[in-house]
Amino acid sequence: MTAPERHRSRIVEFLRIDAPGNHRLFSRGALSPAVAILAVMIFTLAGLVIDGGRQLGARSRAVGYAQEAARVGAAAIQLNVAEAKIDPAKAAVAIAGFCAQVRTNDPAVTACGPTTLTDKEVDIQVDIANKTTFLGLIGKTSLKASGTGQAHAEQGIEKADDSPTIPPIVVNPTTDGPGAPTSVAHPPTIDLPCPTWTVGSPTPTWTLSPFPFPATCSPNVTPPPDTNSSPPPSGDPSGPPSSSEPPPSSKPPGG
User: Fold this and answer.
1) Is residue 151 within 8 Å of residue 71, measured between CB atoms?
2) Cα 2 from Cα 216, distance rounded (Å)
3) What residues does each domain of the chain span?
4) In a 3-state reduction of DSSP, which class is residue 35?
5) Are 126 and 147 in contact (CB under 8 A)?
6) ∠ CA 202-204-210, rounded to 5°
7) How far apart are alpha carbons 211 and 189 in whole angstroms?
8) Which residue has the higher pLDDT, 54 or 190?
9) Separation CA 211–CA 191 (nearest Å)
């Protein structure tokens, strides 16, 4: 074996993983490029989902802050004019106070202030710095979320009779329907049935409330004759009473 061959064999033996003494100090392995690429893709997708959802929430907060600040500014109107106009000086003070409170409650707010402030309208812009979680692995540590809001003073009723009038509703009767039109309405008559009760009995309870008891109703059942009573005594009650003794016998005594 030549010297180059011996040198080559020593190098191969040194690099073998299963060579004696290499399993502890010289353990080596390999990483597939596909695994590394897939890991990067998975973390990137997780960053888009998680950090993207946080970005949408931050933008919603920015829009809410901007709209509320615009309403606060538009509420400061001029009181010495007939037309509804915004007082820019008072509106600027009110917006500054509101934005200061927003920054205190939400430290992520980086900018809050008016972009347009006139006596007609107020435009507000709010910026929020949203910190990322997974996108920080690729160097994107924060995302900017912006929101805008606009408000203006609305003119109300200027005079007492400036409100719109509603014309009266007119209904013209026609002859197409069942019956002729009339200008006088007569209440309908209600024929209520009379209850049945016996002559001499008390008036029964009226159940057809709220209608009154008809005045034309009267007892309509005649009581039957009493069959259990004894017949009247015979004879003239005004004559002398008859004797209760038996009549005398016509047979002679001792016969």
Assistant:
1) yes
2) 148
3) 32-152
4) helix
5) yes
6) 135
7) 12
8) 54
9) 11
